Amino acid sequence: MWDWMRTVVNGLRFEAAPARSVGPVHLAQGGLWSQHTRSGHPLTLTCRAGLLWLTCEGDERDYVLHPGDTLRLKRPGHVVVQALRPSRFCLMERAPAPSPCTPPPPGHGAPVR
């Protein structure tokens, strides 16, 4: 009775969710930007122009990013960015991959074409 549903589920491709782009963000010298990152949503920050100082909650190190530098923030927490001179940066956030509610038993059904 549920073979048709197994066939449909077998044909689905569960891939990573697309990255969400935020930016570019422009900051005047001394300007601040902050965001709380969530678990499972890594944030990648790329400096495009200027000079940025960056600190992350739970990380004892601070970072200075020059144009072309990229930093990937994997842990959740509060991120603060300050422009040490007029700056521009871009952000990418990748959401966790969706998962099926109930995976079908192996070997059931044929892929849908």
UniProtKB/TrEMBL annotation:
SUPFAM superfamilies per UniProt: RmlC-like cupins
Domain of life: Bacteria
Protein name per Swiss-Prot or TrEMBL: DUF2917 domain-containing protein
A Pfam family of this chain: DUF2917
InterPro entries: DUF2917 (IPR021317), RmlC_Cupin_sf (IPR011051)
